[in-house]
Design a protein that fits this description.
By secondary structure, this protein is mostly beta strands. The chain contains no helices and 10 strands.
Length: 113
Amino acid sequence: EVQLQASGGGLVQPGGSLKLSCAASGFGFSDNYMSWVRQAPGKEFEWVSTINRGGDLASYAESVKGRFTISRDNAKNTVYLQMNSLKPEDTAVYYCATASGYWGQGTLVTVSS
């Protein structure tokens, strides 16, 4: 059974930082590109970032480029999202996903003073 469990969300002030983690199991993690996707309240899903199998190539949405960094540890079957300089518009539920279409439970990030 494929499982993706995101964690690390919470309440943070504007300008602050958070690091999300997503623990994966039930599939060949190191064989898959991994992504983060988010959904803000009342809005559609938005792709955030993708990382390749080896972890040496990543792409980002323009809205987070320069502030967010995706990484992975294939030995731990975990993908991360380091989020810096957070803005209120980053408030959303963040999900990790595989390229083959599996999604996990999300983690809520709230950016507010």
